Each structure stands twice: as C-alpha cells, then as structure tokens.
Amino acid sequence: MSAPLVVEGLTVHYPDGHRALHGLDLRVGAHERWALVGRSGSGKTTLVRAVLGLLPSGSRATGSVRVGGTEVLGAPERVLRGLRGLVAGYVPQDPFAACDPLRAVGHHVAEAWTAHRRTPPAGAVVDGLTGVGIADAAARAVQRPHQWSGGMLQRATLLAATAHDPLLTLADEPTSALDADLADDVLALVRRRCGALLLISHDLALVARHADSVLVLDGGRAVERGPAADLLTAPAVAETRRLVAASAPVARRASPSAAAAGEPVARVEDVSRRYRHAGGEVVAVDGVTLAVRPGEVVGVVGRSGSGKSTLVRLLGGMEKPDSGTTVLGGTRPGYVMPVFQDPVASLDRRWTLWRTLTEPLSARGERHGRARRRALAAAALERVGLSGVDPDRLPGSLSVGQAQRVAVARALAADPALLVADEPTASLDVAAAAAVTDLLRGIADAGTAMLVVSHDERRLASYADRVVRMRDGRLVG
C-alpha cells in the first residue's frame, strides 16, 4: 500500500519569483505522526498548499507530491477534489476564513459530506459537535461563525476535516486558538480519526506530545529531521536550537518600582454581556470588574468560550455592556487600539502595507506624502522584526504570522493609551512571539496600558504584570 504522503524534490516558486520551497523531501507513512516546524515564512504553509493542490495561480512547482499514491502536481481539479476531505483532510489555521459568514456553523460541518454530493448521516453534525466539546450543540449549530469564539469554531473545523477518517490529515496550526488542555484533547481526537498526521505548529511543547517525528524548515529548506524526543531535547543545528530556546519563556519578576501607577486608563465595573440567538441566550460576561493602569500589562486566561474576547471588547469600548459601566479615560490622551485574534481578516487585502500601517496617523489628522508614509511604514515593519518586507506588498503575500506582526505594528503606530490584544502571538513562531512580547513589554514600560488575552499562559506570564483568569464569564482566583 502506498504511503499517505510522499514528497520528493519539491521546489515551489510563487508568481512574484519568490522561492518558498527548495528540494524538499518528506515521507509520511501510514499512522505516522510528523510535525513541521520553523519560523513564519519558512515554507510550512506552502507545503500544505502544494499537497492539497492549492498553490496560487501562476506558481511553479517541480518535483513530486503523491497523496495515497496519486500524483498531485499537475493533476486536474477533478482529481484534486476527490482527494480533498476524503483522502486528505485539512484543518486550516484560520477557522473564521474557512467558514462562510452568511451560513450557520452546522452548514460548514455538513459540507464535509455535501461537497462530495453526499448526505450527512442523521445526527452526524450535532453529535459530532458534542463530541468535540461544544455544549448545547443543537442550538449552537444554527448560529453564524461570528457568534462563536475562535476556539469553538476551530473545533467545528476539526470535525469537518476528519469527518471521513481520511488517510492523511494536514493540520496547519490547528490549536492556536485553543487553551492548552483543549488543544491536547483536540489533537488526540485528530489522531484517533485520521490515518497519518502532518502537524504544522509553533507550539513545540504540543509537538513533543503529539508528534513522533519532526522536520525543521528554514528558508524553504529542510535543515533537520528526526524523532521528536531527540530533536527537541538535543537539537543539532543552530536554527532548531533557536526555536527550542525561544519556546521556554521565563515568568516576569516585576519589582515594586515597576508597578503601574496612576488613574486607570480604562475600567469596567460590574459589567455583563449577553448574546441572544434562536436557541436562547448565552451569558458571555457576568458581573466583571477590572481596571488597567498606564504602563501595566494585564493578562486574561481561561478556556475557549469563557468570555475573554468579549471582556476585551467591553473594556476597549468596542461593545457596550447590557449592564454595568465602562469608563475610558485617565491622565494620558490617546486612542484605544485593538490587535485582533484573526490577523488576516483584520488587514484590508486591497491596501498596501504602507497604507495600512499609516492609516492610524491619517485617522488622527496627520497628513504625509506617499514617500513619507512609506518611510514610516518601513520603520514600523522593522520595529516588529519585518525589516526585509517591502511596504508596497499586499497582505495576501504574507504568512499569517507576518500578518499578525503587521497588525501589531499598525496598533502601535497610533501610540495608543490602551492596547487591547486578543491572542497577539497565537499565529507566530516561537522566535517571533518572543520578539513581539519583548516589544509589547517595552511599549508598556513607556506608559501604554495593555489588556492581553492569551491561551499561552506561560508566555503571557513572561511579560504581564498580573494575570487574571476567567471561567463561565466571571473572573475567578
């Protein structure tokens, strides 16, 4: 029987001439668990696109990619459609982009069958959602994607990807929106339902628990491969050593003199927020009081669906509470700027990066010529570790991790009094996440208040002054 995935000498050039992969070889045997790791832009997502036959039009791919014995490179669309979902399941990094915003989440799951002109078995959608931890699944299935948290929606996407017990499952950062416990549960589910797994992840601890073998990419080349237990504890090459070192952040030890002072920049007092839907009502935030002061980083942790993102929107003034009070103010004037959980959707795909990055300046009345705006954008990109990125590029040419750094840079461009960030490092490789959190800490030390939601409690503790926990819409502990 053919191996689920065989890649030989794969080289990929994008239409702009960029070489994303060079001479890559990989064999994933039946029931093997491989992980693909590397920095953002190293070629991980390009490999997934090549395997699924989803490279952008105009791309050039040479070599061979065989899925279940079928050659993918150059295959007609009819053949590729027969592979996707049935032979090769795909879990995307961005669950919101994977769903039609005008249709119910249940419809998204049912497409695992209807896309192949099949009828879902009776109860398959609701029972499946219940099986991946969605409470009151029958009522939630009729809701639209925007009514679900990112973590909940990712579970629905995982269900759709593994509905047919595929020979191979490609999972591109499938747990970036999930808390650690749920991430383990979800990946255990994927492992049970698929024959072989190729996991793309920045979470090296997760990789160590769920992958048998690891391939490290750097600049589109394979630089190291081997058993996960050996490679992640005794890496042989410099790039792997850098990734391993950056994956172990140390908890911040704030001195008394570093404590934030002054009147709160923003506070909520006994706020509650409810969302109504056809099946009833969901209490997302229930009687929460919290304040953030200048120079303070307040972290919020909790399981997916606990109300963290709603609290961020309330404190940042992006939503109004059903009851309670939200106060924005303090001694420092300025803007409240958000960094969203979905970096790709938060950037206008039609705008060049220089226009996106300087829009906050235009919004507050500054007027600069194009040359000056490009120079300001280049400086903003350098600030978040993207000095080699051309300000004239469009967001669609960036990796998701690069897009998140652009979103952080855009927020910082306005020099906000309060920055509210929903999972600002979820899409970043460990090295980039360490650089961004160092940047956020430096901005806070200069006086900006921050409220940060994250599932990565260990990294959050490395730069937050205090961390609060949410459970069922309330602050606990």
TrEMBL record:
Family, similarity comment: Belongs to the ABC transporter superfamily.
UniProt KW keywords: ATP-binding, Cell membrane, Membrane, Nucleotide-binding, Transport
Occurrences of domain ABC transporter (ranges): 5-244, 266-476
Alphabetical list of SMART domains matching this protein: AAA
Species the sequence originates in: Pseudonocardia oceani
One example GO MF annotation: ATP binding
Membrane topology, as annotated: Peripheral membrane protein
Name of the protein: ABC transporter ATP-binding protein
Domain of life where this protein originates: Bacteria
Taxonomic lineage of the native organism: Bacteria, Bacillati, Actinomycetota, Actinomycetes, Pseudonocardiales
Subcellular localization: Cell membrane
Pfam families: ABC_tran (PF00005)
Keyword Nucleotide-binding: yes
Keyword ATP-binding: yes
